[in-house]
Amino acid sequence: MVHEVKNPIIASKLAQLRNKNTPSKDFRELVEEIAIFLTYEAAKKFETHEITIETPLKSCRAEILDEKSFLIVPILRAGLAMSNGVLKILPNASIGHIGLYRDEKTFKPIEYLFKMPPHIEEKIIIAVDPMLATGGSASAALDLLKSHGAKKIFFLNIISAPQGIKKIAENHSDVEIYTAAIDEGLNNHFYIVPGLGDAGDRIFNTF
Ligand code: PRP
Ligand code: URA
């Protein structure tokens, strides 16, 4: 299931992100800010539980999230900037890391890190990566998480290509995708068009 999160504030931040003249510092902050909006949208599906609290006037029932049940999983490198945003609103969540990069010739994902806390099967996982291009990296990351027991996964990303969405829908139909934009497609180098270029390089200033 794909949710394209449309909102004038996100649209305006996306315009700045896409602009090739936006410097790394601003780019990184924008990625983080958009991740906050995407988390807010996905949170509409999060379950709360009831507690009783005392206001200064009387006791009442209130709803809270169990923040510790969340596991944020950035797909390195570019996902790191998004995880900073998710953490701003779920500061007590755990963080696991998946390291993947796209091979420059085959465009297939190569795994170099998988580091999770124990019992990921009990966690609500928020996997984050700004770019969903061919979907190879996201699909591999979701395969890895599931092979280690993950059950409930939300995937947040900023720009998606229809090809990437199709791949996740085929391989991981149980995973809900929250994206800020669905673009036209991919170029010959499997970059999203119009996209925003290489997200990792723009976040980390590594051109
Ligand atoms: C980018 C991006 C995704 C992947 C998307 O990472 O952050 O992980 O490419 O492409 P795909 O859908 O075709 O797999 P990249 O491989 O450039 O690594 P980086 O984040 O370390 O720069
Ligand atoms: N990775 C990126 O960073 N950008 C793209 O457009 C595709 C893959």
Low-confidence stretches: none
The count of β-strands is 13
Q: How many separate structural domains?
A: 1
Please name the CATH architecture.
3-Layer(aba) Sandwich
* Sheet with most strands: 9 strands, mixed
Number of helices: 6
Separation, N- and C-terminal Cα atoms: 34 Å
Outline the structure in words.
By secondary structure, the protein is of the alpha/beta class. It has 6 helices and 13 strands. The protein has helices at 8-18, 24-42, 79-89, 136-147, 162-171, 199-204, and strands spanning 2-4, 49-54, 59-64, 70-76, 94-95, 97-102, 109-115, 124-128, 131-132, 152-160, 176-182, 185-186, 192-193. Strand 10 (152-160), helix 5 (162-171) and strand 11 form a beta-alpha-beta unit. It starts with a strand and ends with a helix. Uracil is lined by residues 131, 133, 191-192, 195, 198-200.
Question: In brief, what are we looking at here?
Answer:
This protein is of the alpha/beta class.
Notable features of this structure?
207 residues; alpha/beta; Rossmann fold; nine-stranded mixed sheet; two-stranded antiparallel sheet; 31% strand; binds 1-O-pyrophosphono-5-O-phosphono-alpha-D-ribofuranose; binds uracil
